[in-house]
């Protein structure tokens, strides 16, 4: 391979490698900052699993604070179970339809609709925190992959430049 080709290939591979290293670093740092923001917000909310009375599958969370995406998902599942229990499995929209059919004057259905609304809203907020946690994990993972691939490109470019 002549020197001009080798130099061109080295610069191309090195440039791509440096770009990938930079992008990977940015993604990793942003993902880590995102996780910390989610954690800080969940901690500020002071959401704590009840110390007693949890279903058996949630026992290991008893008394613990919700501090990360996985905890947020589990707490949202617990809320979902409580809402289904309170509403006999009916959704907010189903209860609203029943209330509308009753002329909007049924106090029991009004209270049940409020319970369903609050529960489903809390559940959706926690699921949003869980999804954001997952996206930040993806950004960190992809950032690490980009950094690894970028480093490999830089090494290959360096090896090509020093080859005689």
Describe this structure in words.
The protein is an all-alpha fold and 164 residues long. It has one domain (3-162). It has four helices and no strands. It has helices at 3-45, 69-86, 92-101, 107-162. Helix 1 (3-45) packs antiparallel against helix 4, helix 2 packs antiparallel against helix 4 (107-162) and helix 3 (92-101) runs antiparallel to helix 4.
**Count of discrete alpha- or pi-helical segments spanning 4 or more residues:** 4
Helix content: over 70%
Proportion of strand residues: under 5%
Total number of β-strand segments?
A: 0
Structural class determined from secondary elements: mainly alpha
- Averaging pLDDT over every residue, what do you get? 92
Summarize the main sheet.
none
What is the H/E string?
HHHH
Span of the ends, CA to CA? 9 Å
Categorize the overall geometry.
Answer: elongated
Radius of gyration: 26 Å
**Unreliable spans:** none
The total number of structural domains is 1
List key phrases describing it:
164 residues; Aromatic ring-opening dioxygenase LigA; 77% helix; transmembrane; transmembrane helix; mainly alpha
Topology:
Blueprint: H1 3-45, H2 69-86, H3 92-101, H4 107-162
Summarize the model shown.
By secondary structure, the chain is mainly alpha-helical.
